[in-house]
TrEMBL record:
InterPro entries: ComplexI_NDUFA9_subunit, DUF2867, NAD(P)-bd_dom, NAD(P)-bd_dom_sf. This is Uncharacterized protein YbjT (DUF2867 family). One of its GO terms (molecular function) is protein-containing complex binding. It comes from Nocardia alba. The lineage of its organism: Bacteria, Bacillati, Actinomycetota, Actinomycetes, Mycobacteriales. Residues 9-115 form the NAD(P)-binding domain.
Length: 495
């Protein structure tokens, strides 16, 4: 039965995968995004209605749910200090608007709530949001999951990097707590079918895969599937969740702001207390996905560079949300600029291929030690650092994370604009562009822009200015040089 579904959180990890599943199931889908531009290149863009909206804006929420039947609520403000307050207010706005609009069903993805345990702020907030939605007067299905195993999920990335980079490690006691992971494909299966639950169903359901194991066993099974040697793990009692998060922040791409709530959730045993969902939604025809198979599927996607969404797709809180001010006399205040241009004999398409392949394993074409050091400093101060990498080795999409940058705008094959999400006393952008030269070859143009915040911002720019020639000048020389050395078949070498 086709229904009108509105999805809050479609630019996130689960939401970005749920939308095509809903379309495949025959539903009409409306997508709500604070920054619709992030969806400019998703393959399903032309098959949905996309509207601009923020869950904390009452009027925008009302407009989003108008004339809809099912609300999917997949929003969580995890990376900000006051996330509990923000999530509470947003849930209340969505609950009230849904009731007033006559919504038939709300579907919410939360976390398994351990019984008789003092919940972490993260789990307590997720549970509170579920309670607010269930008490809205609109029948609500709250699906509670533990660790989600899938390419690009924050939980899986943490598990993957810990297992691959550390053949021997000292770990906290929580690695021996029991966990019931679930494959992302099974989460999506339940979410899609939850829209069709009977009208009298208003409750929470635990959802999990068929396997229950400790985090220690999860790491060892991951190593086996990935073809790694057996991991040696030495649990010790002195590593608190906070200290564990610092370690995860240094070793994996998951930043501290996200690692802390993830690890706090693992301090408790997160195992399904019931499987009542099967009364209404039967298990998939092929059965729920076993852990090893879920890992195998995730690794296959990663190796094929076929990861449709990642945890980093959601914008980092505190990063600038407005587009780059194109006018140097922008009313927002003073701007600093580093502009460099160079002619190259390489053709524009070749130069563009080098530009679009920048970052991740390919590097940044200048002073690798400086970029690496800046990345470590950013991680140490709670930022994202350079470890987020990129989805595909050669192609970028609007809105995706690229190391410590976010792809804000891409006009292929002319201009790439990146917005900084590192820890900075201001806002920063980097533009890389190419145009044909009337006399042959190409004209490469590179612009770094910084809008300082206060005295610290001005001092920061002046302090790093002496290094600009090595960093930004090196980028110009190496990008154009790489383009000129590119093989005739179009293969781009790393810089």
């Amino acid at each position: 039965m086709s229904m009108r579904c509105v999805v809050f959180g479609a630019t996130g990890y689960i939401g970005g995968r749920l939308v095509p599943e809903l379309i495949q199931a025959g539903h009409q889908v409306r997508v709500v995004a604070r920054t619709p531009e992030k969806l400019a290149e998703v393959p399903w863009r032309d098959r949905v209605e996309i509207i601009r909206g923020d869950v904390t804006d009452r009027d925008q929420v009302r407009a989003a749910v108008a004339d809809q039947e099912v609300v999917y609520y997949l929003v969580h403000s995890l990376a900000r200090d006051d996330f509990s307050d923000v999530d509470r207010e947003a849930a209340r706005l969505v609950a009230t608007a849904s009731y007033s609009a006559g919504i038939r069903r709300i579907v919410y993805l939360g976390g398994i709530v351990p019984e008789h345990a003092e919940l972490s702020r993260h789990l307590a907030s997720r549970a509170e949001v579920g309670e607010i939605l269930r008490e809205s007067g609109v029948p609500t299905a709250e699906l509670r999951a533990a660790v989600i195993i899938g390419s690009g999920s924050a939980s899986f990335e943490m598990l993957r990097y810990l297992s691959e980079r550390l053949p021997a490690m000292i770990t906290p006691r929580w690695v021996r707590n029991r966990i019931q992971p679930i494959a992302v494909r099974d989460v999506l299966y339940y979410l899609v079918h939850a829209a069709e639950l009977p009208a009298d169903v208003n409750r929470a359901f635990d959802i999990g895969g068929p396997d229950v194991m400790t985090y220690l066993i999860m790491m060892r099974k991951y190593a086996a599937v990935a073809g790694l040697t057996r991991r040696v793990v030495l649990p010790v009692p002195v590593l608190t969740p906070w200290l564990s998060a610092q370690w995860v922040n240094l070793v994996t791409p998951v930043p501290r702001a996200l690692a802390v709530p993830l690890i706090e959730s693992l301090v408790h045993e997160v195992v399904c207390g019931e499987h009542d969902i099967a009364t209404y939604i039967p298990d998939p025809a092929e059965g729920l996905t076993h852990y090893e198979r879920a890992v195998e599927l995730a690794l296959t996607r990663i190796r094929r560079a076929d990861v449709p969404t990642r945890w980093s797709d959601a914008s980092t809180f505190g990063a600038p949300s407005d587009p780059l001010p194109t006018d140097p006399a922008w009313s927002g205040g003073s701007l600093y600029e580093d502009l460099r241009e160079q002619h190259t004999d390489a053709d524009p398409d070749t130069v563009w291929a080098v530009i679009e392949a920048i970052g991740g394993e390919n590097g940044w074409y200048s002073f690798p030690l400086a970029w690496s050091l800046r990345g470590w400093i950013d991680r140490a101060t709670g930022g994202v650092g350079l470890r987020r990498g990129r989805k595909h080795p050669r192609r970028l999409s609007s809105g995706e994370a690229l190391d410590w940058w976010r792809v804000e705008y891409i006009d292929r094959p002319h201009l790439l604009r990146l917005r900084a999400e590192m820890q900075l006393p201001g806002l920063a952008w980097l533009e890389l562009g190419v145009e044909p030269d009337p006399n042959g070859g190409s004209h490469y143009r590179q612009r770094a822009i910084f809008q300082p915040h206060g005295l610290a911002g001005h001092l920061y720019w002046k302090a790093i200015t002496p290094f600009h020639n090595a960093v930004f000048g090196g980028m110009v020389r190496n990008i154009t040089g790489t383009a000129e050395r590119t093989d005739a078949d179009g293969t781009v070498s790393t810089g």
